[in-house]
Amino acid sequence: MCHSKTRQQKKYRIGQRPVGLSGSPARQQGSTTIVAIIISIILLGLGIALSNQISSNIRQQSIEYYGARAYLAAQSGMEVAISRLINGNNPGCLDIIAPPVDISAAHLQNCSVLLSCDVETNVEEPEVAAGEIRVYALGAEAQCSTGQLETSKRVLVEVRQEE
Fold it and tell me: Cα–Cα distance between 36 and 25 in angstroms, integer?
């Protein structure tokens, strides 16, 4: 006798499925929610990282901009110091740095310039026939500030003057 195995198929009502099967709508709905949460967390992390990068770039550009302003203010201060040196009749350092430098340019607002000077007299130079040689070491330091950001730049120049 041969017995043939027959599968008994269970009959379910319409819309009713057995619990635990992988294709069940309830199980699929839960995994979709988890995938959506994971994707949301990843996108949130990327958004925060991008926001931090943009904020850092803006701050760096601000520092460069105000650094350029401070450099231009220091350069202007140096031009004032050299002008005072050239137009004066053997001026001392006090005559060069004593009057404050007033910068009234619109782009250099909130900037201040401080001049420094050191003079060395009777410098021996074999190539100069006669006369006294003075060497002026001029410096101009500018500070520009706005809000929480403050930058400063310094320009140094050495000027040799023969008499």
Answer: 16
The CA–CA distances, whole Å, from 158 to 14, 19, 38, 81, 127 equal: 98, 90, 65, 11, 18
Closest by alpha carbon to 140, among 94, 97, 87? 97
Give the list of residues 6+ apart from residue 58 with CB closer than 8 angstroms, or none: none
Q: Alpha helix (H) ranges present in the chain?
A: 25-87, 93-97
pLDDT in tens, 53-77: 999 998 888 888 888 889 999 998 9
Q: How far is CA 12 from the centre of its chain?
A: 70
Q: In whole angstroms, how large is the CA radius of gyration of the chain?
A: 39
**pTM as predicted:** 0.65
